[in-house]
Amino acid sequence: MANVVVVGAQWGDEGKGKVVDYLAKDADIIARYQGGDNAGHTVVVGEQKYVLHLIPSGILHPDKKCVIGNGVVLSPKTLFQEIDHLRQRGIHIEDNLAISDRTHLIMPYHLLMESTDEDNRGAKRIGTTKRGIGPAYVDKVGRSGIRVGDLLNLEVFEEKLDFNLNAKARILGKSKEWIESAKTEILEEYRGYAARISPFVKDTSLMLNEAMKAGKSILFESAQGTLLDVDLGTYPYGTSSNPTAGGVCAGLGIGPTAIDRVIGVTKAYVTRVGEGPFPTELPPEMNEEIRQKGEEFGATTGRPRQCGWFDAVAARYAVRVNGFTGIAVTKLDILDETDSLKICVEYKYDGKRLTEFPGQIDVLENCEPIYESMDGWLADTSKATRYEDLPKNARKYIERISQLMETKVEFVAVGPERDRIVRVS
Ligand code: GDP
Ligand code: IMO
Ligand code: MG
Fold first, then answer.
1. What's the mean per-residue pLDDT of the chain?
2. Positive or negative, the Cα torsion across 30, 31, 34, 38?
3. How many Å apart are CA 154 and CA 151, to the nearest integer?
4. Quick one: DSSP state of residue 28?
5. What's the count of helices (H) and strands (E) in the chain, helices before strands?
6. Which ligand 2 atom minimizes the distance to the CA of 275?
7. 3-29 b/e with 16+ CB inside 10 Å = b?
8. Is 336 within 8 Å of 379 (Cβ atoms)?
9. What is the CB neighbour count within 10 angstroms for residue 173?
10. CA nearest neighbour of 61 among 88, 32, 33, 86
11. Which of 25, 29, 140, 201 has the smallest C-beta neighbourhood within 10 Å, fewest atoms?
12. Does residue 275 contact residue 125 with C-beta atoms inside 8 Å?
């Protein structure tokens, strides 16, 4: 297989875990390039359900290698919880996982900074996953972050920790005693992580580039989604990294010429968790119906996801900023009992029609969706094993999405389990 990027085309939770798990069989290495344990990627294998936060979804394939790239922000606490949990369930980790020495660490004070920041925003809070993601990226860009490689030299780690605790104490109005006790606690906790993490630490850019030279294939796994991208998403209501395909290169230390295909993952409808505008949001009753059918509750925080009609304006934008070569549509089965479906084809803003996704949040907040309607299929799609098995109206719906996105739909998922996915020939 070629080197393929899998990117969320919406606001996250599109079913990337499932699509990565499906495509992983044809790859040698699966690599995460951004985000952290704000992600929750679900893979269902038979009766077993796995939710991965930090480790790439490819880890469930014992013959594949997984990489946590330099663009990720890593909570060592979550990492070892995840490793222990997976090991208990019989998943082989050891030599199957490599972590970049350049990956930034999430520190306990990042969680504190985040809760203060959210409180300061009041009604305009972001509604984060409370994992310290934003503040960890702030420190990275501010050039004061502490990286995985620093854990390999505890003197360096301690020096950077001192600097950061003093800086944070000034911002948070904390005392000298707070600095001292935080330092003692963190040093003890992170010393333990240092000992455990060292076997996994590698120059992963070198590893990936050497693998490509040897003819191996890489699957790049995004967390979050296009509309949460810090540059291209619904700023400021998004995350602090670049899930879009362009993030792969900086997040893993590979060149753009290494990428062969970019698969956008989109639900057959849309969901969103956290704050911020959501033009196609369903009215409460229907919202609840889809939420229950689709089990739309956050895989990381358990928060209810808001549900909406498929938004082709946002989807076309995702195609443009990622350069998708193909689409995977997930959760088609959730619409099996919906008799009439809507697709948003344009927005109306200030009395005018908008065909392109706006860059300003105040514009998006005031956009009204313009819908076209389609008849539902009112039949069970979950047993389909070939595209042709899908009811005619379901195929029409997929084909309309494909037409509006001006991109080929390559896969349609019809259930959470590993084998519930059909290839569109
Ligand atoms: P991710 O973050 O993009 O990996 O997505 P999540 O795992 O957070 O959320 C997707 C949810 O939908 C998970 O519970 C999946 O098991 C489930 N899922 C994925 N594809 C399908 C599908 O085609 N049909 C159904 N019914 N569930 C799906
Ligand atoms: P996966 O990888 C859905 C959302 C949060 C919040 C915003 C910022 O499972 O698709 P953050 O903690 O990143 O600073 O929160 O982004 N968010 C997600 N929403 N799926 C995710 O990940 C998300 N990761 C972050 O709800 O609105
Ligand atoms: Mg998720």
1. 97
2. positive
3. 6
4. S
5. 12, 20
6. 27
7. bbbbbbbbbbbbbbbbbbbbbbeebbb
8. yes
9. 8
10. 86
11. 25
12. yes
Q: Is the pLDDT of residue 1 over 80?
A: no
Mean pLDDT to the nearest integer, 159-165? 98
Element (H, E) at 347: strand 340-349
Determine which residue's CA is closest to atom 3 belonging to ligand 2.
12
Confidence (pLDDT) at 392: 98
pLDDT of residue 218: 98
Judged against a pLDDT cut of 90, whether residue 43 lies above it is answered with yes
Pocket test for ligand 1, best of 18, 21, 52, 380 (most atoms within 8 A of CB): 18
Cβ–Cβ under 8 Å, residues 279 and 311: yes
Backbone angles phi, psi at 400, to 5 degrees: -70, -40
Is the whole model's pTM more than 0.70, yes or no? yes
313 near 345, Cβ under 8 Å? yes
Averaged over 102-121, what is the pLDDT? 98
Q: List, for residues 188-231, the tens digit of each pLDDT value.
A: 999 999 999 999 999 999 999 999 999 999 999 999 999 999 99
Name the residue among 385, 381, 397 with its Cα closest to residue 337. 381
CA of 361 to the centre of ligand 3 (A): 23
- The set of catalytic residues is 13, 41
363, two tokens: 């514009």
Closest protein CA for atom 15 of ligand 2: 128
Q: What is the pLDDT of residue 300?
A: 84
Amino acid making up residue 377:
W
d(CA 104, CA 69): 10
